[in-house]
Description:
It is built from five helices and 13 strands. The strands form three sheets. Strands 2, 3, 5, 6, 7 and 11 form a six-stranded antiparallel sheet that branches. A five-stranded mixed sheet has the order 4-1-8-9-10, with no helix packed on it. Strands 12-13 form a two-stranded antiparallel ribbon. The protein is α+β, with helices and mostly antiparallel strands. It has helices at about 1-10, 95-105, 135-145, 160-170, 175-189, and strands spanning about 20-25, 25-30, 35, 45-50, 50-65, 70, 75-80, 85-90, 110, 115-120, 125, 150, 155-160.
Amino acid sequence: MRFTGLILSLAISPFAFSGEIVTHSDLELMAVDGAKVKSSFFTDNSMEVTDGTHQVVVRYSNSFRDERLLQSRPYVFNITVDGDTEISTNKLLSFAQAEQKISTELDWFVENDAGEYQVETSDQLHGDGFAPYADIEGLVGQYNQKNNLQVTEGTVTKITTNSLIEQYKAATAEQKKQFKIWLINNDIK
């Protein structure tokens, strides 16, 4: 019985994730859907995810021939994952060219099974202190809260008053009761 379960789990596991986010060597994938991407010396800067819309945090980081290192602030934007999905930016060949492009704005490109497109809106995350991006999950959480975004794996939704009303209308009587109690307790404070 255990052997059959093992065989079934091995047969099904490749289908659990249908897409993969990959970045070029000069880009660092820092977070996906608000969760920090685990990276090490041996990883190839990729992450398996389900197909759909995902919020990613990426930064440009390149060491040039003269051994100077240049890093951008992290950029947050949404991409559509459809199979293998690659994130790239402009080809920056020199330190001066990269420095100039970072000071204006980097362009982001996404290529997946559906084709290639340029990311239209991206925002920079701003951190404070000695290691400003060490808590990337906290920065992404603050960004999402400030912009009224709800991020779950495969979906990024802007929270509006109408969507909250629709969720309340769809709730059960018990859920509505719990919400009212929570509202009273938190509104008084």
